[in-house]
Specification:
Layout: E1 15-17, E2 22-29, E3 32-39, E4 47-54, E5 75-80, E6 88-91, E7 96-98, E8 109-118, E9 132-133, E10 137-141, E11 147-152, E12 155-157, E13 169-175, H1 177-183, E14 188-194, E15 209-213, H2 222-227, H3 230-236, E16 245-249, E17 252-253, E18 256-257, E19 262-263, E20 267-268, H4 269-284, E21 294-299, H5 301-312, E22 320-323, E23 354-357, E24 363-366, H6 367-377, H7 389-397, H8 419-424, H9 430-436, H10 438-441, E25 449-454, H11 462-473, E26 483-487, H12 497-516
Parallel strand pairs: 15-16, 15-21, 21-22, 22-25, 25-26
Antiparallel strand pairs: 1-12, 2-3, 2-11, 3-6, 4-5, 4-8, 5-7, 8-9, 8-10, 9-12, 13-14, 14-16, 17-18, 19-20, 23-24
Length: about 525
């Protein structure tokens, strides 16, 4: 079947091995660098080749942090096309890099180097199933000596397998015809499931459900982490715990995180969730087939998605508990006003726009620096294919170009904003959507919106939420009863997970009682 372009974000999967022998030779003498790639066995002819330099041997370099702080590992990348058996590909300055543009700029140090060859065209991660990677080689750089480095692409990540289940912990991989048709390849929706204490007591009893959405690109496997948390288990299996099923949605999509909604670039994830996944889960896990017994919650990306699902499918859910949501008003897309600003990287005062700050306000990195990193991760040297946070937003909210690729909201190098693309983003501006549809949407949201935000959100997301609250407070027909909780001096998702989850689930239980009386 037709293969599609791969996207790249770095996450960990189980490892396996195969004999896909390819050699990568790096020769550097001062400012000279050469990379030779040779394959002695057949591997996919197209992909993106990465070289990662780490100063530490504690973890394999291929598990790149993708976090553009001052100590980020040097990363270099190159698209490969036409890979053939026993054919050598030589490169000199073909690799682009971050934070160093050229390998010759890497500081003198002891480095641990590893290569990854990403050939999975339907998974957004570098370390996705069946991708190839090399051994780790130690390299001493002193800036003067000749260097000859050989890395063998002799290992392969294992194919996907579902995690081990337990009595009250389940995992599912559900085929999606809608997504398969869109991508012209076999596609699946994955979930983790935690069952309540009384689940097996009465075979005919049906349970309400809460859909948990994680942060950006969070996987369904996080259900296992929560299930094995001692504090959670003590609450979940106590007599006071709400008897609900918890469903953990999967954030993986070919262009990053699907955000669980329909989009031109990712495909019909929203429709697939509602008409394929929901009926399957309702039947298999004895869920109440009624919107009054369904809830959403999550933080960060999950905060945005939980709110968006409640807004886009107001009668299918009975409440959203949204924490530290991504930008709900694109007048503050972090600090960028996509409608009025001309440049995403530089503000009207001529300064670089920050992307991430400490809670005391100290800037840690800028939007431009983050995009520079994603340009290296992304196929075609563009953040549009990075599978990272900005690339993921770009894919979800933006239109598709005639050639089938995602449009870009701004130039990957200059940051100049494309106003036509920005206009197309309006469909996903939750403040605009809520405001424009309030006459019909408002009555369906009564008692359903519960929003939490720290006023020192590390990604400046509090600004957009302020505008969203101001808009709701102005509505008259009907008046909004949305509950906003603001925490002073608190950052992004800065709360204790289990106590907050316990409080949220108990409020959902109270909501069910009110809805059925």
């Amino acid at each position: 079947m037709k293969k599609l372009p791969s996207m790249c974000v770095i996450l960990l999967l189980a490892l396996g091995f195969s004999n896909a022998n390819a050699n990568i030779n790096i020769n550097a003498n001062g400012q000279n660098t050469k990379v030779d790639v040779t394959s002695t066995q057949s591997i996919p002819s197209e992909g993106r080749l990465y070289l990662v330099f780490s100063p530490s041997a504690e973890e394999e370099p291929r598990f790149y942090s993708a976090w553009p702080t001052s100590n980020v590992e040097p990363l270099f990348a190159k698209d490969i096309s036409g890979f053939k058996v026993n054919e050598t590909h030589s490169f000199t300055h073909d690799f682009i890099g971050f934070p160093y543009k050229k390998m010759a700029q890497i500081p003198s140090n002891k480095w641990y180097v590893q290569a990854i060859y990403d050939t999975d065209f339907l998974d957004s991660r570098i370390n996705s199933p069946l991708n190839f990677y090399s051994n780790v080689v130690e390299l001493d750089l002193d800036g003067n000596s000749d260097i000859a480095l050989t890395l063998n692409l002799e290992k392969q990540i294992a194919k996907e397998s579902l995690p081990k289940e337990a009595q009250f912990l389940k995992f599912d991989k559900v085929p999606s015809q809608l997504l398969s048709d869109f991508w012209q390849n076999e596609m699946f929706l994955r979930v983790g499931v935690i069952l309540p204490k009384t689940y097996y007591d009465n075979p005919s009893h049906k349970f309400p459900v809460v859909f948990d959405i994680g942060g950006y690109h969070a996987r369904y496997t996080r259900a296992k982490n929560l299930y094995e948390n001692d504090a959670f288990k003590a609450f979940w299996f106590s007599d006071d715990a709400p008897q609900m099923v918890m469903i953990f949605l999967d954030g993986e999509a070919p262009l990053g995180d699907s955000y669980q909604i329909d989009s031109q670039n990712n495909g019909p994830y929203g429709e697939a969730n509602m008409v394929e996944l929901l009926p399957y889960l309702t039947a298999k896990y004895k869920l109440v087939d009624d919107g009054n017994s369904r809830f959403t919650t999550g933080c960060s990306t999950g905060g945005w998605v939980s709110l968006a699902l409640q807004l886009f499918y107001p009668e299918q859910f009975n409440g959203a508990w949204s924490f530290s949501a991504d930008g709900v008003d694109f007048k503050y897309f972090q600090l960028v006003d996509i409608y009025s600003d001309n440049n995403a990287f530089i503000n009207e005062h001529g300064n670089e726009r920050p992307s991430y700050r400490a809670k005391d306000g100290e800037i840690i990195f800028s939007i431009q620096r983050e995009i520079m990193m994603e340009n290296v991760i992304g196929r075609e040297d563009s953040f549009a294919f990075s599978g990272g946070q900005w690339g993921g937003w770009n894919a979800v909210f933006g239109p598709k170009k005639q050639n089938g690729q995602p449009s870009v909201i701004w130039d990957p190098v200059t940051g100049e904003i494309d106003k036509e693309v920005a206009k197309a983003w309006e469909d996903y501006d939750l403040r605009l959507y809520t405001q424009n549809n309030w006459a019909t949407l408002g009555p369906k949201l009564a008692g359903k919106l519960h929003i939490w935000m720290g006023d020192m959100d590390n990604f400046y997301l509090n600004n957009a939420m302020n505008l969203y609250q101001n808009m709701l407070e102005k509505q008259e027909e009907p008046k909004s009863d949305a509950v906003f909780t603001w925490e002073r001096g608190i950052g992004h998702c800065d709360y204790k997970k289990v106590p907050m989850l316990k409080k949220t689930l108990l409020q959902m239980q109270q909501r069910i009682s009110k809805s059925t009386n």
